[in-house]
Amino acid sequence: MNYMDRFRLTGRTALVTGGARGIGLATCEALAEAGARVILTDRNGETAETSAATLRGKGHDVVADQLEVTSSAAVETLAGKYSYVDVLVNNAGIARSNVPAETMSDDVWRSVIDINLNGLFWCCRSFSKQMLERKAGSIVNIGSMSGFIVNRPQEQAQYNASKAAVHQLTRSLAAEWAPRGVRVNAVAPTYIETEMNAYVYDDPELMRHWVGGTPQGRMGRPDEVAAVVLFLASEAASLMTGSIVLADGGYTCW
Ligand code: NDP
């Protein structure tokens, strides 16, 4: 296989969670451009369909479906419906910022862990079965540099803990499934320009921390994360499993 062919996903099917906007939507576009048939899922079926229609308008092979990742039953049902998924991208996630740990409600803790960690595991568990049977498949989890460092000055212990757990879960599943042909990797992005961070643009102090604290002097874009996901999903990364790839503009160097 020549080098550029290794990046192509022609004939493959990829499923993305939380794909209606932000990093998830950019990832759907990247995978579709590489030739994959993409199943764009999100917890809101209508926004999933609107985003899928936009990508179809660009000539891509994209279908939409509704998936709330915190429901292990719903995840299992969807894995039965789409029984030939080659690439799974676990992107759905939320953040709750500026929540001091000592006064954090049960609900804030549980909601973040339930989506970022439990939901991601339900998807890995359900979609791995068909991959393990075929002895082929690639799972890419969206972690965060917050899984390595405590980002400043937000107080979000639940988010940092959830992403650190995603990284170690990625490595655990990679070790279990590598002998059976399934690769599991993660991307750990810096601050990305998405709706998740919309609250920061009006906060000059926080922007100073984020941008000034990054050697590249800027936030990242969703397409820059999607490009790393595409690489990990593809055969170009055939030797990689259990890798947590930082895409952080150098933030964790300082
Ligand atoms: P956005 O908030 O822009 O998009 C997240 C998408 O996931 C939304 O469409 C959202 O739906 C969906 N979603 C949320 N909860 C669920 C759920 N329970 N089931 C299914 N879908 C759900 O986020 P980003 O694109 O910024 O983030 C994507 C991933 O990247 C997350 O895992 C995040 O933690 C991670 N990340 C983001 C960074 C950043 O700076 N933005 C940095 C590092 C990592 P709805 O519209 O209904 O909310």
From TrEMBL:
Give the GO molecular function terms. glucose 1-dehydrogenase [NAD(P)+] activity
**SMART domains per record:** PKS_KR
Enzyme Commission code: 1.1.1.47
The protein's enzyme class: oxidoreductase
Quick one: a GO biological-process term for this protein?
carbohydrate metabolic process
Tell me where in this chain the Ketoreductase domain is found: 12-190
Q: Which family does it belong to?
A: Belongs to the short-chain dehydrogenases/reductases (SDR) family.
Q: Which PANTHER family match?
A: 3-OXOACYL-[ACYL-CARRIER-PROTEIN] REDUCTASE FABG (PTHR42760:SF115), SHORT-CHAIN DEHYDROGENASES/REDUCTASES FAMILY MEMBER (PTHR42760)
Know the name of this protein? Glucose 1-dehydrogenase
- Give the UniProt keywords, A-Z: Oxidoreductase
Q: Has keyword Oxidoreductase?
A: yes
